[in-house]
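Q: How would the structure tokens look for this protein?
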Amino acid sequence: MKITPKSQSGLTHDFNVVVAAADIEKQMEQELQSYGKRAKIPGFRPGKIPMNILKQRYGKDVLGEVIQQSVNKATREALSKKDIRPALQPDIKIVDYQEGGDLEFDLSVEAMPDVPEIEFEKMEVTKYIFEVDEKDVDEGIERLAVRQKHLHDADAKTKAKQGDVVKIDFVGKRDGVPFEGGTGTNFQLELGSGQFIPGFEEQLVGSKAGDEVEVSVTFPKEYHSESLAGAKAIFEVKVHSVHNVHVPDVNDDLAKQVGFDSLDKLKDAVREQIAGDYEALARNRSKKELFDTLDEKVKFEVPEKMREMEFEGIWKQLQEAKAKGDESLDKPDAELKKEYTKIAERRVRLGIILSELGRKNNIQVTNDELTRAVLDQARMFPGQEQKVFEFYQKNPQHVDELKGPILEEKAVDFILAKAKRKEKKIALAELMDTEESSSAESKKPAAKKSSAKAKKEA
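A: Here is the predicted structure in token form.
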């Protein structure tokens, strides 16, 4: 095999590769011998068929496969000899091949960059600490109590008030004609819940069982149905019954209702859950700080195609967000492209840093960790857990996709364990504000080649 460098620009290397005809012929004979072991040709025993007969019978069928194998093998050897780790799949272009002759092809590949050594011990990352206020615990339990609410049938003469539930039939009409999606029967509507468009629920306050109410509304201009957006409509509503909503008192009975021995035990559990939630937010804040430091101090060229792929993914989601009315994206495309090209490059660079850290320090994902990741995915679809499990069983390649976020978190743990940590007390409200601003800054998850969660924090 002959490898001739053609050009190099940044991380992109271009080569011309020639595979000798003798090597092609050798590979052909190996493939044909494999065919010959199972081929059935009259007059010959399997495995004893002459090579010229095999070539005559199967040569054309084998040739395409041999060419592909030869290109792949030569590419691996070329990259190994030149000590290049490809960032993405190399581009191959066949230049010349005539049966019985040499195979010539051009190889273009972007190399993974050399990541500078990072002295994590000299980095300083804040460790945010907080206290769970009893007010937060009480509010959490009150929300739990609301989730345990149940209905009491009201007297037939009881007039509905805000917070009550009315069971209704309704028919929506425009110019006297019912419109699609505007009809419902035996619908339970909590007045003041905001389930229906503005102005609907308020007009049912004061109604009672047996009433027929004409509700006049105007659909919001940004309503999802274009035919109804900004349109006026009349809903003919029949009230079947009125129900008072009862929220249980916060006491030991409530605790037992949700599976705890006492209210004190329930408070301990709520406090622990709140602490766990905010601990995750505190970690995300430290992680964002870490990524900002890495982005500032660790500089190297990133593979152009990786950056382009990352940007294309971001741009697609930006367009979807703009179509849904995201006002934060109301800027000229040129300005958005400049802004998010920088974000794409940052995300790719962070992904490479964490990937290289994992590779050099043998950070692995265990089977148990992957199993837990699948379980976490299943929990996101209540009632469909079995379908999620079956999906991952039938598509093991998607299980591999779960490795990225796990490897990233383990790489971050590795860095935080080495970095200097200074403690800083932070209010829970500030943690929430940080999380919201961080989420607003990111429009999409990371692509495969860069770290998935690194992008969320980018």
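The chain has a mean pLDDT of 88.

The chain has three domains: 2-110, 150-246, 261-457.

Upvote if useful.
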